[in-house]
Please model this.
Amino acid sequence: MIKRRVVVTGIGVLTPIGNTAEDFARNLRLGISGKDTEENPGVSGYAFPPVFRIKNFDPHKYGTHILDPFIQYAVAAAEGAIRDAGFDVASADPYSIGLSVSSSKGGVHTLDRFRDRFLRNPSAIMGARIYSSTVPNFGDQWIARRMKIKGPAKCYVAACATGVAATIAGFRMVQEGQADFCLAGAADASIVPVILAGYNNMKALAKKEIRPFDKRRDGFLVGEGAAVLFLETLESAKNRKAGIYGEILESGCAQDSGHPVLFDPREHALSRAVKNLLARSGTDVGEIDYINLHGTGTKHGDAYETGEIKEVFGARAYEMTMSSTKAATGHMLGATGAVEIAATLLAMRDGFIPPTLNLEEKDKVCDLDYTPLKAREKQTRTALKVSMGFGGQAMAILLRKI
Model:
């Protein structure tokens, strides 16, 4: 099989620090946090730790206002990616465009909003409305309806690694010729009581701040949003004279089957995914200029991830530049990996390393260079994005500037 070279020519985002790629890149560089100012926000009458909400977004503009927010965000990000790529969907073969836009939770807002009403009056119409806004693959479906796309559609769910999994699926679609173009990414809108309460009872939520790799870290805070990338072949991008953010070189996946939440350092799932990726791409560890980490700010997760990076890169890990952007955006759950791929590509374009906010004193077991507090000016040619999800999903994707 001939493997085609796949590049990213469009980025659409909705994040707590910006609803366009340019706003997102600027605020990321400035070290802006999108955390809400409320210390204990009320969510449907319940008080929770702070959250990172989308701001200044009007779904009426897209005609999606009656749909679940995760679909609203997916549609808006997809349209943003198309605009950014300068691609005319109407003039393209609709069967040549694929979709791989996922969500780890689907329409939990809809379930929360209509649950009691449906129990009181269980009508078929309301059941259909709930269903059409709930299932994770309906983000794909609504994008296809609006843009009249008829190509292959996939929806991979991998908890907090969903965004990377979806991008990998889209990459393979174009690389293998299943589609010539693909919209790939993820959306999540999970700021509802049942999700927040679940994480809070698991002791996964921080009290006030996400502090990746800091000795005081005590968990993550939930964000919402979406990122969608427009993928096409390098040949197509050159023929269109499109701007290219970067090339997707390869990907890697692995599974840790020991525990539903915690990764076992003896199984080395994350390092296996990265090693497989490097081997398949023929990339030497010395070629990686930057790593965008998962970095959730949990005690176990940050220590595990640090150990896995050392497992792959050995002594060179101490010389490498890396960071986590979750203290800026919140943990956007299923969307977070796609947003962080977008962050990495924008940082590569603009010549900076995004900072790890709130990292004031490193934990002794988290002793690598995480770019604390402020962005750093640096040209990056090859970058690695890693992601992990509850259930043992470990993902990695390799990006290169052209």
The chain has a mean pLDDT of 95. The chain has two domains: 6-240, 249-400. The longest strand covers residues 246-255. The longest helix spans residues 69-85.
